[in-house]
Amino acid sequence: MEDENYKKNKTDSVTVIFLSGFQDFYNLRIFLFLIFLVIFCVTICGNFLIILVVSCSRLLHSPMYFFLTQLSFSDILLSTTIVPNMLHIVLYEGSSVSLIGCLTQYYFFSISETLETLILTVMSYDRYQAICNPLHYTSVMDLSFCLKSILLFWLIILVEILVLSVTMSYLWFCGPKVIDHFFCDRDPILQLSCSDTFIIVVESIVFIIPLAICPFTVIIVSYIYIIFTILKIPSTTGRQKTFSTCSSHLAVVSIYYGSTITIYLFPNTVKASKILSLLYTVVTPLLNPIIYSLTNREIGQAFKKLLSKMSTTLLVDWQFPKMTVKDK
What we know:
Shape: globular
Structural class: mainly alpha
Low-confidence stretches: 1-11
Distance between the termini: 88 Å
Helix content: over 70%
């Protein structure tokens, strides 16, 4: 009897999952495909440009911009994990993906989201030190601190993914074989499981405290101290100048946490979930480089210098081509 049940369970196990995507917007699929394609291209180019500008400009070799490059890397990882398959889903009214492929997408999505949360937290701590403790800033926020922070973040992420991988590998997925979403998120995946998912829920709560609640608390406390410090500055010009140093980061934090918190507070409807998921998986990685390039003078100046240098180099190479051995 046990052998028959095992064979039946094995036969009924889900191996391929169908992501339905945006079937309600079938008539707009070409338009949506083009919009998402443009957003994806701009997101990848914008974040790569941030990394290039910071790497090539000596004026931007500081902890804040070091973490900004890590944030851009996280946005690139998030976009490449979600958008390419989403484009296929939009164009062909859905897409089939293997169970392993679905779990892999969820793991990389978890990596990018966790990394972004931790980087935004350490960036807020950097602004706190720069504004509230400027005399000790260089001794606290040095290269060693930056490297140790990133290594610690990746260690935390790898442990989280290892625990999730081991736990989910013991689940039995029996259906339904359709996920009404455009990517493989945790809750839609767990809805396919016929196993007891209590341990997954417990693990999620355990991870939420150090990887979501604690970072958010650090950000809030940091900005409370920053605001009180700025209000103590006597001149209006001084307050504006000081606030401008953290305005870009504050805007990025507001968008990121605003969208992620709303998705849990909003009524649990499929359409609302898809729209809010689009906000923090597709739109937020696009807005981050735009915000930093438009509101940060140092990024803008460094970009202009890099562009001018590249233009000059290309012009010189065009006017004075290198002589070959034959020309000599």
